[in-house]
Design goal:
It is built from 13 helices and 14 strands. It has about 400 residues and is α/β, with parallel strands linked by helices. The chain folds into 2 domains: about 240 residues, Type I PLP-dependent aspartate aminotransferase-like (Major domain) (Aspartate Aminotransferase, domain 2), CATH 3.40.640.10; about 120 residues, Alpha-Beta Complex (Aspartate Aminotransferase, domain 1), CATH 3.90.1150.10. The strands form 4 sheets. Strands 2-10-9-8-5-3-4 form a 7-stranded mixed β-sheet, sandwiched between helices. It has a 3-stranded antiparallel β-sheet with strand order 11-14-13, with helices on one face. Strand 3, helix 4 and strand 4 form a beta-alpha-beta unit. The protein binds pyridoxal-5'-phosphate. Pyridoxal-5'-phosphate binds next to helix 3.
Amino acid sequence: MAANVLPVTPPQRILLGPGPSDVPPRILSALASPTIGHLDPQYLRIMDEARAMIREVFSTSNEMTMATSGTGSAGMEMCVVNLIEPGDEMIVCVNGVFGSRMRDVAQRCGATVHSIEADWGRIVEPSAVAAALADHPNTKVLGIVHAETSTGAHQPLVEISQLVHDAGALFLVDAVTSMGGVELLVDAWRIDAVYSGTQKCLSCPPGLSPVSFSPAALERMDGRKTKVQSWYLDVSMLRAYWSEERVYHHTAPINMTYALHEALRIVLEEGLEARIVRHTVNHEALRAGLEAMGLSYIPERSLTTLNAVHVPDGVDEMAVRKRLLNEFGIEIGAGLGPFKGKAWRIGLMGHSSTKRNVLLVLAALESLLLDQGADLKPGEALRAASGVY
Ligand SMILES: *Cc1c(COP(=O)(O)O)cnc(C)c1O
């Protein structure tokens, strides 16, 4: 045993970045419960209840709903790898990091990928989707990101879903930063495959990815001529474990399932509608405060769960972020891609979306911006945010 290895003692932070978000003590306690066997009847009950609650939070009655082992990206990979066979045509909407990642995953699966590109910060317009579907009538799947965490853009889905189904394709949605934070109606919006992650608006540690597949998506998988390239993420085998048969595939992340179970209980205790309203009010207050300080939003249609703003000219982006972390214990995110060094991304996800955090981050940012010589009136941001409450 190395005598100089210190115990794990992470500091207390306030997580206002693009994920993870703050984890409530109830969830941490659940995580620390005794590990039992993954075929123990007591575990199977917890797993079944977690699955029923995932359905509720996704607003779906899809039988094939489960928590994939791995983070949100594992859910992305599971959806694509099971729905795509080499040579299939897939359209991917790309307006930020996560659309680009989905395209990369699809290409690695051997799909012929057609991208619909939109500027970062903008949404993908239904007209662009209609044109791409007309150009590529053999498209099997169209993938899109509901909440593009890299830019803060909130993508409307209903009209696009209609176009995709009219073209006979399956509709795949990344709901990593929307599930449990903004409205997401998997059945009503006719989403065929959807994945999320635990550490964004569910406020659970990272490690599981809730996914759900419509009957049409399962039919597509049943009709495959080739085996799914990924053994680990093959839904045809995982279905047998997540069914009455409980056929061993891989050992479930037992304690993460406890944590997710508790996180979903908290979501449903609050109620989906109340939760969406809470995220909206806190976002509006933060927005009023940031704009009162002269910070402007990047996306035209902003998420309530992620606030991406331009860094004012003359302000040292990284210095402010470092001081927020070191002096206030607050984590916010940096810009990505074209916004590297030019943006801040402030997450108000799940347990982190509170009035306390909104007023705290505004006050801290104001003091740091004043130190950098920014031209702003002290107190204006808090006055504007308080006005919303
Ligand atoms: C965070 C995120 C992912 C990836 O999730 P990981 O948990 O980091 O693997 C995918 N899509 C979106 C929109 C995200 O915000």
